[in-house]
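Recall the central idea of this unit: under ordinary conditions, the amino acid sequence of a chain determines the structure it adopts. In this exercise we apply that idea directly, starting from the sequence alone.
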Amino acid sequence: MCGGGVAVVTVGADGTHRRTLGPTPTERTIHPVKTRVAPVLGVLLVLALLGSGLVWFAASRGITTGDVWEMLDPPPPEQCSEDDPTTSGCLTPTALRLHDATVQRFGEPGPDAPVRAVTCWSEHAWNPSSDHPGGRACDFFPAAYGDFPAGQDLDDGWAVANWLRDNASELRVRYVIWQGRIWYRGTGDSGEGRENWGRPYNGGGVYDPEDATGGHYDHVHVSVRR
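Accordingly, the structure predicted from this sequence is:
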């Protein structure tokens, strides 16, 4: 042996002996290792790309790390333990914070304010599955009850709906309904413009989506997660 290799002796056609230096045992085992490492690195690269893509998608939909943990390990539901400022009923702490933040942003409700009236808790006997009886929803009226808003009233309603949507993570918004459309947190729009905001609202088999109140044209409905 010389130079760390393995001496290989061969006999030529003329009967002469030739000695050559073959690969060491270590060198002979390197190639199989390389062939195994390459696919592993490829898989890791694909997983990294998928992970970054999921992070981008979640961020574009307003989904935070806290939201992910909440989905993996849901916290216990909040009780309807706080007094509702709009009725004699109650609200969950999260719903009360949303109500207070919205009033702080748009001012106290009144005939000349962007929001004319607010109602949160309601028995909703005709729709027991509603979030109102559990104190997890509020309705913000930019126009009179039963009216189809127009002009400034309509713009005020859009301002409220979009503000709730823009602050959905902090306010723990679950979904918003407005102008015959419904937007769920973590989803996008069906297209460009107000007419494609969120997705079409069909009334859930309970409300008439063509009605001013049933279709949520006269008020912005918002439900919270807790």
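Helices lie at 25-60, 65-72, 93-106, 151-166, 168-171.
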